[in-house]
Amino acid sequence: MTTTRTRAARIRRVHADGTTCEHQVHPRTGRPRDPAGGCTGRTGYSADCPGCGETITHDLRVVVADELKYRHRHRHTA
Ligand SMILES: [Zn+2]
Ligand SMILES: [Zn+2]
Predict the structure, then answer these.
(1) Are 34 and 77 in contact (CB under 8 A)?
(2) Does residue 53 fall inside a structural domain?
(3) What's the longest Cα–Cα distance across the chain?
(4) Cα-flanking dihedrals φ and ψ of residue 68, to 5°?
(5) Domains contained in the chain, number
(6) Fewer CB within 10 Å, N side or C side of the chain?
(7) Considering the domain boundaries, does residue 1 fall inside one?
(8) Is 3 contained in some domain?
(9) What pLDDT was estimated at residue 35?
(10) For 27, what's the count of Cα atoms within 13 Å in the CB-facing half-sphere?
(11) How far is the CA of 62 from the centre of ligand 2 (A)?
């Protein structure tokens, strides 16, 4: 995994209750790899728009990325 230094918002994995998931989960199912890790399972993705601070949440990562990239990018022209 590489780290980028762009201003783009970080998309984080979230649980059903909206808390950030930083556990190891299966990429397809979102199920936790470690049953004892306290993870309830990744149900979606969330990101804060750097322009307006609005939180975008969706169960598909690509939808969150597109929202940030297009919908929001156009709304806040730098
Ligand atoms: Zn988790
Ligand atoms: Zn925005």
Answers:
(1) no
(2) yes
(3) 45
(4) -65, -45
(5) 1
(6) N
(7) no
(8) no
(9) 82
(10) 0
(11) 16
